[in-house]
């Protein structure tokens, strides 16, 4: 149960994940925000109106998946780091996940890192396709993962080669 | 002589000072920290709340902006690293300054806004006085203000917003968080904070608490235990953790000494985490010249503290005859925004608490 | 120990200065609290309880809890968490309630 563990259950996720057809069409946002809290930056960040405007600041985000382009601008706007973009159409066997990352060291493009699940467990290794540095310091990592892992991978662990920590 | 003395330079006090000064009032802000900004200057996370206020901006950036704004007013004076020790009927506050506390100043103020914030609670457990047991705010001060590593292996006690946020900040500083324990059967803070820590591999044990700490001259080990719904230890569930630091995030209590001393009518309101002064919706206490804002008025988020500060600053200045274009509308807007911030299931207790502490119209 | 690199923060401490703890020379940054420099230098015990001499360390960091009271430049009961470090400061672990000798 989410409020005991901090990990959303399959039931929780079912409510927010777009349908198979939409997923197959390419990049789309997944917002893992399940609790009414006073917070609205995601809705304001979306230039396509895909995250519906809030009537009340405590609203849960509601996504119109037909409008979402998967641009990912909302990812670093979210104070809760709860927004991801999944592209199931990335390549033959791989999906691409864009995820927010505020830790050090920052991986480099092409680097192979550990892909972690929602409990921080290592699912395997994955290649970093892109590192987008954002001015507000919530950087966006694009990660190539097997399609079967696209709904499981939510974080990364980077080897500290230069002993930064 | 000043129009409004504001006591405490955290989010509430800074907001009050800026608002009152912008209306032309002569403002004196007194703060006892080494730096202005209270807890705000340690908050590396992006704030929740409304885009209209500061949502999505990191606490440290909000503090920087407000401290910059303060410098723009000639009618706003800051007395830093100084403690207000008393309020007297003839509108005088006494201020103690200096490393040894050997400078005493008096300041006459027509209104005071008390924004003294809160102090952290301690938890009873065996050896809770060992070095290495820190309050969460102290851990933040060390690592986020001064870049000092508070310890290598941390046990966090409390999964409210402070416990969750400080755990995340520890990870950002490259420090290992062994676990988070929470006595309640559920996580008290925002679940998005909890999820982002879990993703980085930190376990959260709900219905667990810290039983004992061990060590000769500092913490070397902690024993946690599961507890039942009556908060009693369940024998046989103890776990030993190799930690050198225990961080306590077990709640805050309003720092209301000055309000007691000044003779404001106080009330114990558990939902607001302690004794608070009764206030009207302008944040004015039962004493006509004393206003409150922020955690001293009830423990809440910094976003609501800033709004309370603005409400208190606006209304204190208006009460002295300063003019504000469309006062009614400004006042209504601020109160509306504050209401919105509290209009969610997590804030139910706060709403109940505020109701208990509110002086209604026609109150005698 | 100090944080080497941080994803969000930059620490603009520039001026390294020297001070002593019970006669032993240590280094810290100008303007940080005395207690923070001590912890960075690996010192965890800042005082002893008056009756049972139990070790006490940094706790509240806002000058309220009294666990970090030390003798500084001969003056006892200085709250080292809210007192800035200065060049050449003589910091001592005080005995009991402290004295001016």
From TrEMBL, chain A:
Residues 59-88 form the 4Fe-4S ferredoxin-type domain. It comes from the Bacteria. Signal peptide: none annotated. GO terms for molecular function: iron-sulfur cluster binding; metal ion binding. Keywords: Iron, Iron-sulfur, Metal-binding. It holds the Pfam family Fer4. InterPro entries: 4Fe4S_Fe-S-bd, 4Fe4S_Fe_S_CS. This is 4Fe-4S ferredoxin. It comes from Candidatus Sediminicultor quintus.
From TrEMBL, chain B:
Residues 3-309 form the FAD/NAD(P)-binding domain. SUPFAM superfamilies: FAD/NAD(P)-binding domain (SSF51905). One of its GO terms (molecular function) is oxidoreductase activity. InterPro entries: Ala_DH/PNT_CS2 (IPR008143), FAD/NAD-bd_sf (IPR036188), FAD/NAD-binding_dom (IPR023753), Metab_Enz_Cyan_OpOx_G3PDH (IPR051691). Transmembrane segments: none annotated. Coiled coil: none annotated. It comes from the Bacteria. Keywords: Oxidoreductase. PANTHER family: ANAEROBIC GLYCEROL-3-PHOSPHATE DEHYDROGENASE SUBUNIT B. This is Pyridine nucleotide-disulfide oxidoreductase. It comes from Candidatus Sediminicultor quintus.
UniProtKB/TrEMBL annotation, chain C:
Keywords: Oxidoreductase. Residues 15-97 form the 2Fe-2S ferredoxin-type domain. It holds the Pfam family Fer2_4. GO terms for molecular function: 2 iron, 2 sulfur cluster binding; oxidoreductase activity. It comes from the Bacteria. This is Pyridine nucleotide-disulfide oxidoreductase.
């Amino acid at each position: 149960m989410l409020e005991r563990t901090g990990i959303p259950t399959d039931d929780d996720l079912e409510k927010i994940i777009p349908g198979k057809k939409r997923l197959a069409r390419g990049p789309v946002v997944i917002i893992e925000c399940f609790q009414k809290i006073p917070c609205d930056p995601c809705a304001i960040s979306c230039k396509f109106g895909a995250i519906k405007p809030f009537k009340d600041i405590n609203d849960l985000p509601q996504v119109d998946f037909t409008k979402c382009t998967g641009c990912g601008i909302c990812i670093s706007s979210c104070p809760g780091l709860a927004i991801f973009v999944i592209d199931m159409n990335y390549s033959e066997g791989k999906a691409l996940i864009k995820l927010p990352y505020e830790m050090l060291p920052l991986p480099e493009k092409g680097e192979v890192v550990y892909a972690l699940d929602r409990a921080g467990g290592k699912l395997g290794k994955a290649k970093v396709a892109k590192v987008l540095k954002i001015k507000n310091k919530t950087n966006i990592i694009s990660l190539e993962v097997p399609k079967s892992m696209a709904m499981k991978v939510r974080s990364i662990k980077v080897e500290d080669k230069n002993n930064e920590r | 002589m000043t129009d409004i003395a504001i006591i405490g330079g955290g989010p509430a006090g800074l907001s009050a000072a800026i608002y009152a000064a912008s209306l032309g009032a002569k403002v004196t802000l007194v703060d006892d920290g080494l730096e202005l900004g209270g807890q705000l200057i340690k908050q590396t996370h992006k704030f929740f709340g409304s885009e209209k206020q500061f949502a999505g901006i990191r606490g440290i950036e909000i503090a920087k902006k407000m401290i910059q704004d303060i410098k723009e007013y000639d009618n706003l004076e800051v007395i830093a690293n100084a403690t207000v020790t008393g309020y007297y009927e003839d509108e005088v506050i006494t201020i103690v300054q200096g490393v040894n506390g050997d400078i005493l100043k008096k300041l006459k103020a027509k209104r005071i806004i008390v924004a003294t914030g809160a102090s952290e609670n301690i938890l009873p457990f065996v050896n809770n006085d060992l070095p290495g047991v820190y309050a969460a705010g102290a851990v933040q001060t060390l690592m986020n203000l001064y870049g000092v590593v508070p310890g290598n292996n941390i046990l966090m006690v409390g999964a409210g917003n402070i416990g969750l946020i400080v755990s995340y900040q520890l990870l950002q500083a490259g420090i290992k968080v062994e676990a988070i324990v929470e006595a309640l059967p559920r996580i008290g803070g925002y679940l998005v904070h909890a999820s982002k820590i879990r993703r980085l591999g930190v376990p959260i044990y709900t219905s667990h608490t810290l039983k004992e700490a061990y060590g000769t001259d500092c913490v070397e080990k902690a024993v946690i235990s599961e507890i039942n719904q009556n908060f009693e230890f369940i024998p046989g569930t103890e776990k030993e953790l190799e930690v050198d630091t225990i961080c306590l995030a077990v709640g805050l209590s309003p720092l209301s000494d000055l309000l007691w001393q000044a003779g404001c009518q106080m009330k114990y309101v558990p939902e607001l985490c302690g004794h608070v002064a009764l206030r009207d919706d302008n944040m004015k206490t039962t004493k006509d010249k004393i206003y409150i804002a922020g955690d001293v008025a009830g423990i809440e988020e910094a976003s609501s503290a800033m709004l309370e500060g603005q409400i208190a600053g606006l209304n204190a200045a208006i009460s002295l005859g300063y003019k504000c274009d469309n006062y009614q509308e400004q006042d209504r807007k601020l109160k509306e925004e504050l209401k919105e911030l509290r209009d969610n299931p997590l804030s139910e207790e706060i709403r109940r608490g505020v109701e208990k502490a509110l002086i209604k119209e026609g109150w005698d | 120990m100090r944080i080497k690199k941080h994803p969000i923060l930059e620490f603009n401490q520039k001026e390294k200065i020297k001070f002593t703890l019970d006669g032993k020379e240590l280094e810290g940054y100008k303007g940080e609290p005395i207690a923070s420099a001590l912890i960075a230098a690996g010192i965890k015990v800042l005082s002893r309880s008056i009756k049972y001499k139990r070790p006490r360390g940094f706790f509240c960091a806002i000058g309220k809890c009294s666990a970090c009271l030390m003798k500084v430049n001969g003056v006892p009961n200085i709250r080292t968490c809210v007192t800035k470090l200065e060049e050449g400061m003589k910091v001592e672990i005080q005995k009991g309630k402290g004295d001016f000798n």
